[in-house]
Every structure is written in structure tokens, then in C-alpha cells.
Amino acid sequence: MYPSRFRYEAPQSLAAAIGLLHDGGDYAKVLAGGQSLVPLMKLRFASPELVVDINNVPGLSYHRAEADGTLRIGALCRHADLEHSALLAGTQPTMAAAAPLIADPIVRNRGTLVGSICHADPQGDWASVVLSLGGSIVAQGPDGRRSVPVADFVTGPFQNVLEPDEIAIEATIPPAAGARAGGYLKLERRVGDFATVGVAVSVETSGSVVSRAGIALTGVGGSTIAANEAAAALTGRPLSAESISEAARLAAAAARPRTDHRGSAEYKRHIVATFVERILDRIGQPAERAA
Amino acid sequence: MIIEDRGDEAEVPVRRIRFTINGEKKAAEVEPRLLLAHLIRHGLRLTGTHTGCDTTNCGACTVLVDGQAVKSCTMLAVQADGREIETVEGLATASELHPLQEGFKEEHGLQCGFCTPGMMMAAKALLDRNPDPTEEDVRWALSGNLCRCTGYQNIVKSVLWAAAKLRSEG
Questions:
Q1: Domain match, A45 and A71 both
Q2: CATH number of the domain that B118 lies in?
Q3: pLDDT less than 70: residues of chain A
Q4: Residue-level pLDDT at A285
Q5: Domain identity same for A138 and A83
Q6: B11 pLDDT tier (thresholds 50, 70, 90)
Q7: Rounded to the nearest 10 degrees, what angle do helices B116-129 and B99-106 cross at?
């Protein structure tokens, strides 16, 4: 299989890339890691007339924490960079849990977090993780930059709010309000398969009280699902067996799974509840997590 | 390269790229839609790199690009401009097999052999950064490469054999 013909440009600057997109209109695509776009082009689900490869644009491979604790992840930061990141291992438990579960190790060498979120596959893991953390995508176009919360950025399956001449240049995670805990669990038939069910849980605690919580679901609906009611059940009080089981029940209710070759809707809903409980139980009992 | 004659060749944009493959410097003129796997197999006639699933699942087409394992069916050949590529043909010297190749022979790490070049290149990327992997390290590192014959047991043993040999050679 090979893609339809396209014009290929590999600009050396962001301004040049945006200029190319501006002229290319609706028929241009940005190529970063290419681990979703290239297969789609080979299958002819996508046949862009212009491909703007941003791999030669310097200064987009970073992931770093600002002084205030904001985490910034550049458009060319690969999954493997995040998987091996000491910064994430020390400060971002939900992201650190998810990174080794993205696709497979070879795909992780090329694919990017920002690209995964832009691709907006309902079965993409990063959108749930970043959604649970209240993160945003920063888009740059001819008229400047804007920041869009991931909750508003992904509008449906394979759809986002980027204008044709905008590039998503980074993802940002706001600083934690208190101590950060969390996890990501993914049920997959084998390594590299899309998630049958994925659950991201992020919790911030001040003292023993949960000051902020986020729960987001992968693969159980037409797009990434923010289980806001489930998260609200955790907020403003200490984690307890009651609040955990309430959150699990509400998260399962927020899921919109379909019966398919990966399992029945009922089964997937059950897994959502199980994963929410499992992540939160581990947060409540750090000693057992090590066991 | 041989391309289909549709009478519109003049409109096909071709790019000139330079790269190193298995230590040799090369240049090629490629259409942007040409995949790296096709450049390697058809353009350079290095048919040790296999294309299996063609959908980024199986890993048979794994090569190293600047030392990193990459599925060459999911990278454009134009993106190899200025890069160093290693394929399975680069493992052996004129007189000696690479320890990975020896390991696959000693531990019977293959049956049909289709996945083997990809397995070896993924394993090479692992051993280049971690000379003393555990069995679990090996299993995770090869989890993007599918084998339908062996059940993986002997592949894992082969990689561990090669790791020990490489360490003993210092």
C-alpha cells in the first residue's frame, strides 16, 4: 500500500509551516510522528494534497516544567521521550502510567502526544490522560496563538477545532492544586492494539481533602469522555470507600460503549467501574501499590 | 526506480535525498509518497527488510534510523534525508555473523523466518542502550514485533544469548 500523490514540504520554521498551511487550505495535513497519518494515507482514508512535515522545525521536542509547575509538551515530543522521562515519573503519575501503554515500543519512538490528541481517535489514550488533568492544546496560526482546553479541543471522532492554517505546537498541563496522584489503566487484547477500555484518573489533594479530580474514558464512546460527575463525587472530601464506589458507578454511567469484537457494552461498562476503583484504591493505599 | 507509466511523469514531484545505509553513503530520487520500506526493498534491493502487515502492527519492516527502531512502512523515504539507516544486512561482517544472528541460530529463534529481520533490529536497538536486559525487558522491547510461529520463547532466549555474548566480548 502507498499513499496517493501529494506535495511534500519540510519547512525549517514554524512561520514557514503556517504559511504553507495557509496557502494549502483544507487539503493540507501536518506530519509530525506520522504513526496515525501515514497509515491513514496508505489506506486512502486521508488523501491530502499537501503534507507539511514539521520534523525539521527546531525547538518542538521539549517537555519541561515551568517555575509555576505548568508542564509543556512540544509537538515533536515523542511517546518514548515521555516514557523515559524522570520529570514525569516524579511529578505526573497519570502521564507516567500511560506513556508505556501507548501503542508499542517502536511506534512510541516516532509518535507524539500532541499528534495523538489532534488525531482525536476515540481510542487514543493521551486525550483521556490530558483531559483528566485539565490540560490544553496551544495552537498557532497566522494571527497568533490561542490555548484551547482539551475538553473543547476534541469535538468528535477524528475532529478537532484547529483551523486549516493552525498548528498545535504544544500541550500544557496546569500546575497541581496540592499533591498529585493518579493512574491510567488500559485493557487491550495485546500490546499495540487499541484500547478496549482505558481509564485516566487524576486526583489532587490538599491535606487529606481532594481539591481537584479528573476522570476521563478511552474507547467507550464516539469521542473521549470526560466523566465530570464521577470526578465531582470525589471532590471536596477525603477519599473513602464510599466516594470511590460512587465515582466508579458514575464513571460507568458516563460511558457510552458499543458491543463489538472487543467485548459487549455491558462488559466494557463493568471494566470502567473496575478501573476507576482500582486506580483510586491504589492511591488510597500507597503501600499496596508497591506490592 | 521502476514506476507505473501513466503518461504523467512530468508532473510527479521528485526529491533528491542523501542518507547512509549500513555505513554506505547513498543518494536517491524519490517521490514523496514512497515509503522507507519500499526505498530499502525496491530501490536499494535490500530485501532482508520485510513488509508484513503494512499497517504498523507487525514490525517485520523494523529498521534503525539514527539508532532508533522504526517501522519503515510507516515513515516516508523523504524523511530519511540526512539520516543513518541500519538494516539486517548491516549486522554481519564479511566473515562473521553478528551475535544476534548467532543467538537466533543457537537458540532456534526462528521457524519461517519472516519476522526475524525485524526482531533482530528491534533487539539491536534494545541491546545498544541496555546491554544487560532481563527477560522482561526483552519481552517488552519486542512487543511491537509479531511472530506467528515460535510463541516467542526461543526469540527471547536468542536475544538473551546475544546479550551475554556481546557482554563477554566487552
A1: no
A2: 1.10.150.120
A3: 285-291
A4: 66
A5: yes
A6: low
A7: 120
What is the model's pLDDT at position B4?
A: 62
Is residue A124 assigned to a domain?
yes
C-alpha cell at A233: 463525587
Structural domains of chain B, count: 2
Q: At a CB cut-off of 8 Å and minimum separation 6, what does A232 contact?
A: A213
Return all residues near A206 (Cβ < 8 A) that are at least 6 apart. A177, A178, A179
Residues of B in contact with A105 (CB under 8 A): 69, 122, 140-141, 143-144
User: Could you report the per-residue pLDDT of B18-41, keeping only the tens digit for each?
Assistant: 999 999 999 999 999 999 999 999
Edge-to-edge order in the sheet of strand A71-74? A63-65, A71-74, A167-173, A136-141, A144-149
Of A106, A110, A191, the CB nearest to B122: A106
Q: In which domain, by residue range, is A44 found? A: 7-52
| 8 Å CB contact between A227 and A252 | no
Rounded Cα distance between B159 and B164, Å, is: 9
B95 CA: distance to closest CA in chain A (Å): 30
Q: State the CB neighbour count (10 A cutoff) for residue B63.
A: 29
Contacts B62 to A, Cβ<8 Å: 106
The reply to whether B67 and B125 lie within a common domain is no
> Of B60, B90, B120, which residue is a domain's last?
B90
**Contacts of residue B141, Cβ cutoff 8 Å, sequence gap at least 6:** A105, B122, B123, B125, B126, B133
User: Mind listing the pLDDT tens digit for each residue in B91-102?
Assistant: 999 999 999 999
Domain end: A126, A143, A173, which one? A173
